[in-house]
Amino acid sequence: MNSPKRVLHIVSAMNRGGTETLLMNLYRNIDKGKIQFDFVSHRKEKCHYDDEIESLGGNVFRISSLGQTGPISYIRELKKIMNTNEYTAIHSHTDYQSGFPALAAKVSGINKRICHSHSNRWTRKSGLKENMVLNLLKKVIKFSATDFCACSEEAARFLFSRKEVDQGNVHILKNGIEVDKFIGISENCSISVRKELAIPSNAKIIGHVGSLSHIKNQGFILKTIKQMLEYDINIYAVFVGDGELRTFYEEESRNLGIHDHVRFLGIRDDIQRLMKAFDVFVFPSIYEGFGIVTIEAQCAGTPCVVSDTVPKTTDMGLGLISYISLEENFNHWSKEIKKSLNLERPNNTKIHDCFLKNGFNIKDNVDHWLSLYGT
Questions:
Q1: Residue 131 — pLDDT band, cuts 50, 70, 90?
Q2: Per the structure, how many domains does the chain have?
């Protein structure tokens, strides 16, 4: 019996982020007798998905990041992994740093080298020096990669240029989710979630899922919640996720005098249940390559109020999502959230049909992904 082909994915860390969740959705649904995934993680400690990866037959290689070691040592570490194992392809998900894994693979003789854009903006400040560095990193990608992929046209234009997109040189791969896991959740879960979180049964839950960071902009939610509470709207904010700003946001909720109406849950395994229990999902990202959590919220039938930096391709046609500028004041956001609280939730049949039509059920787009690897 032939051994399965192996693909090496390079990621920041296999914690519960959008890119990582997408890869796990894909990994769970591939034929592992034909293809297997390994992962390079830039965290020395064990991450959220590591145990599941190993249970599915994959390997996790933990190395220092490019910023910690410098290009030469970084490429040397990657080559060691690539030369020890036989890979059909490498697939790098580290955005503007993706060219270095692709370069290591090129030197190692791996014929399929994929660089994947998951963001529509650079995380650093913009200036002459920064733009020069970014342009250099883009040249490394262009020299080293055989294939360009992106989660949206916005993300594709950012990393690979408008010209590459217009010429059809970028594969737009949809961030599919496991639809059945969301529509299979009982409506009654909101009762148990409220009980668990000590939230009154007559209160509304404003939910958010994401890394607690500057980019995800959770402080904007806290200030909007304060505004709504001043209008005597009985609401609670629930934040799912962890990150460098968790302690800061917890303190901020106290400073705003709303801490009793805020819950910080950390990383959770029951995202589907929580999404279903939210009355509105709020996502005011400063920028976003795609925003898979907005897809998950709609799949749970939950109305969404998101920033207009989120690509419009996240709209599943269910009438559940509103895109609002971050330049609008908290009062405007409060009104949009209040309006969304009154939206009628679609039934499961309509949700399933819309996801099928838009191609965001992971089971329906696995083949598109795997065709990149020649399987």
A1: confident
A2: 2
Q: What is the residue range of 19's domain?
A: 5-176+359-371
In this structure, the answer to whether residues 296 and 262 fall within a common structural domain is yes
pTM score, two decimals? 0.88
Contact 17, 358 (CB under 8 A): no
- Residues 280 and 212 placed together within one structural domain of the fold: yes
CATH number of the domain to which 169 belongs: 3.40.50.2000
- The enclosing H or E element of 121 equals none
Q: How many CA atoms lie within 13 A of 80 on its CB side?
A: 10
235-286 pLDDT, tens digit each: 999 999 999 999 999 999 999 999 999 999 999 989 999 999 999 999 999 9
130 and 244 in a common domain: no
Burial-class residue 194 by CB neighbours within 10 Å (0-12, 13-18, 19+): middle
The residue written with tokens 């400040």 in the block is 125
Using CA atoms, how far residue 341 sits from 157, 181, 280, 283, in Å, is 35, 23, 6, 15
Same domain, 148 and 219: no
CA 237 to chain centre: 21
Please check whether residues 187 and 128 belong to one and the same domain. Answer: no
